[in-house]
Amino acid sequence: MITAVSSRAEVIKWMEDFVGEKITELLKSVEDSWQPADLLPDSTLDNFLGEIKELRERAKELSYDLLAVLVGDTITEEALPTYESWLMTIDGLPSDPNGPWMRWNRAWTAEENRHGDILNRYLFLSGRINMREMEASTQYLIADGFDLMTDNDPYRSFVYTSFQETATNISHRRVAQIAKREGDNVLAKLCGHVAADEARHAKAYKAFVSKIFEADANEMMLAFEDMMRKKIVMPAHYMRELGVDMGKTFGHFTDAAQRIGVYTSADYTDILEGLIKEWKIETLTGLNEAGERARDYVVALPARLKRVAERMKVPQLEYKFRWIAD
Ligand SMILES: [Fe+2]
Ligand SMILES: [Fe+2]
């Protein structure tokens, strides 16, 4: 039984059955999953070259910023080894390889692994990308790692993943919409598939946090506040290109994403508002004084962020990415 003084490790252990249920409910079996090969030309077929030709014709019409955002998204997905090893460092996750937590980590990683694969393969076939430059950025990002400021804490970590999976759902979905507008239905479809995966993952991580709120509301509230005070950084915040300082390319990538409306500061606030609603923060009770202050801070934050966003201008400076071939 969970009591008010339960440690984080006890809460995480107590959630095991719940996590097991979420694996069945929100992750898909291999048999039921799409694979990159379902959506891209099949090299064993005689019409392979014809299909590539069509793919390249469509890709010619894609705008510069969209391509840049797509490459940045791909590099972010390709840094999956960083995310998996980070998950494994969260304090208190039971290490039993057959237990729900480790099964979750592996099955989540296995689903995510398809994202980098499909985006990378599309970009390779598109004829518009300097693949070596993109690959170097990926190698840099994995070697550089990240600093999410979650301190190996499960509560902070699942606030982070709840936020981040929602953000990736939004950005892949928007890229799909723009690709469709620019006439590339295949790219639109594959980004739509990736976005749908991210939506399931977001749902699961949000459910993990809801469950923690049931058992340890005060500590969960303090963890949520702490992450929002520090601000949620993107996992690729160290992104760079060859010859560019660490993190510099990332700034240009997020500028491009804002310019074309793939991910903006308004989205950041919308996600926060969604989490406040999902976790019923406004009506949260049973908190101590620090917990109540944390709740009030978080509840007031969206309005503050909106005021700041009103004063911010969308960055117009065009940047020539080494990734784009033309
Ligand atoms: Fe992903
Ligand atoms: Fe994801």
UniProtKB/TrEMBL annotation:
Its cofactor is Fe(2+); Fe cation. It comes from Pontibacter burrus. Binds 2 iron ions per subunit. The keyword Ribonucleoprotein does not apply. This is Acyl-ACP desaturase. Belongs to the fatty acid desaturase type 2 family. Fe cation 1 binds at residues 77, 112, 115, 198. Keywords: Fatty acid biosynthesis, Fatty acid metabolism, Iron, Lipid biosynthesis, Lipid metabolism, Metal-binding, Oxidoreductase. The keyword Lipid metabolism applies. Pfam families: FA_desaturase_2. PANTHER family: ACYL- ACYL-CARRIER-PROTEIN DESATURASE-RELATED (PTHR31155), STEAROYL-[ACYL-CARRIER-PROTEIN] 9-DESATURASE 7, CHLOROPLASTIC (PTHR31155:SF9). GO terms for molecular function: metal ion binding; stearoyl-[ACP] desaturase activity. The lineage of its organism: Bacteria, Pseudomonadati, Bacteroidota, Cytophagia, Cytophagales. Homodimer. Fe cation 2 binds at residues 112, 165, 198, 201. GO terms for biological process: fatty acid biosynthetic process. It comes from the Bacteria.
